[in-house]
UniProtKB/TrEMBL annotation:
Signal peptide: none
Top-level taxon: Eukaryota
Protein name per Swiss-Prot or TrEMBL: G9758 protein
Organism, as annotated: Coccomyxa viridis
One Pfam family this sequence matches: PSII_Pbs27
Length: 177
């Protein structure tokens, strides 16, 4: 049973001096201990806690990532993304000119290059040797694509330079640099 308190209600001692709380004290809800159906007033804190709990239940395994628990570090993500783009580039440039999947592979490399550069250009990793080597190789490849298209073979000197940069980038990734 819920009773509405009248003007005779009082606040705890620390709040009596504040006019803000005395105005609110005249109409607050009092619980009756004799009632089994006790009703509590919803508070903002309870609403937020309920919403957060529902969000965690609905998201399931993503809840850990939402809270930052168990989420891979930025370092691990950078290493994985860089190793992935290096492998894609190596596989694509190793394909023969007559291979039917070469154009598609080169287009995938172009998209992957754009995504990698866009993600890490301003991410605070630009001073790393692995970033510099990978960026140099990807830039040389992108310049070749822009000038000659994705189906044109790489000149021997450019191919050697790209492979050297990719090798150096792989070494630096292995060292954590």
């Amino acid at each position: 049973m819920v009773l509405l308190a009248s003007r005779s209600c009082t606040l705890p001692r620390p709040f009596r001096s504040s006019s803000r709380f005395t105005r609110l004290s005249c109409h607050h809800i009092v619980r009756s201990s004799a009632s089994s159906n006790q009703v509590s007033t919803p508070t903002r804190r309870n609403a937020v806690a309920t919403a957060a709990g529902a969000l965690l239940l609905l998201t399931g395994s993503r809840a850990h990532a939402f809270l930052g628990i168990g989420e891979p570090s930025k370092e691990d993500v950078y290493k994985a993304d860089t190793a992935k783009i290096v492998d894609e580039v190596r596989k694509a440039i190793a394909l023969d000119k007559s291979d039917p999947g070469k154009e598609e592979a080169m287009e995938n490399v172009r998209q992957g290059t754009n995504n990698w550069v866009a993600k890490y250009r301003r991410a605070g990793v630009t001073g790393r040797p692995s970033y510099g080597n990978t960026y140099t190789a990807l830039n040389a490849l992108a310049g070749h694509f822009n000038s000659f298209g994705t189906t044109a073979p790489l000149p021997k000197k450019r191919l050697e330079r790209i492979n050297k940069e990719l090798d150096d980038a792989t070494k630096m990734l292995g060292r954590g640099r």
